Amino acid sequence: MTQLFQNLHHVCIVVHDLEKTVAYYESLGVGPWFDYPKKGAYVEFDVPNKAASDAMRYKCCDIDNVQIQLCDPGSLDSPQKHFLDERGEGVYHLGFEVADRDAAEAQGRALGLGVVARGKRTDGSGFCYFDTREKAGIVLEVRKS
């Protein structure tokens, strides 16, 4: 059985003010920052609120061993917005790179993990957020770029 959560790709931090947070990181020498690169349309896209998902803003920074993602969830109803309102700024999820998105989602479901959101493109890339908040404290994501 392949280990789902072995190859850490990114840490996603939910924040109130994207520009202010990026400026602070840059003042510490962390950067450069870039907009999250959306790679195209999903053929499957199951999220709690598509409008909220579309409205979220992300900035990313690749450091030597991992990517940092900052997420401003905006004002629409989403799991990220709930997290920010209930807990304040902080790590919302860890994203792990996998070789096969579909197999990773199936393996997670077989382990009894619920799914918060998922998306898949025609080339097999995409993501699956597992609902691991209660036991892991955060969401765990598998993704294929």
Reported for the largest beta sheet, the result is:
9 strands, mixed
Rg result:
15 Å
The CATH class label is Alpha Beta
**Gap between N and C termini:** 21 Å
Q: How are the strands of the biggest sheet laid out side by side?
A: 2-4-5-1-6-9-8-7-3
Low-confidence stretches: none
pLDDT averaged residue by residue: 95
Strand residue percentage = 25-35%
Which structural class best describes the helix and strand composition?
alpha+beta
In total, how many beta strands?
9
SSE succession: EHEEHEEHEHEEHE
The number of helices is: 5
Overall shape: it is globular
Identify the CATH architecture. Answer: Roll
Residues in helix, %: 25-40%
If you had to describe this structure to a student in words, what would you say it looks like?
It comes from Rhizobium subbaraonis. Residues 7-145 form the VOC domain. This protein has helices at residues 18-27, 50-55, 79-87, 101-110, 133-136; strands spanning 8-14, 34-35, 44-46, 57-62, 67-72, 90-97, 115-120, 126-130, 139-144. It has one domain (8-144): Roll (2,3-Dihydroxybiphenyl 1,2-Dioxygenase, domain 1), CATH 3.10.180.10. Helices cover 27% and strands 34% of the residues. It has five helices and nine strands. It is globular, with a radius of gyration of 15 Å. With 145 residues, the chain is an alpha+beta fold. Strand 7 and strand 8 (126-130) form a beta hairpin. The protein has a nine-stranded mixed beta sheet with strand order 2-4-5-1-6-9-8-7-3.
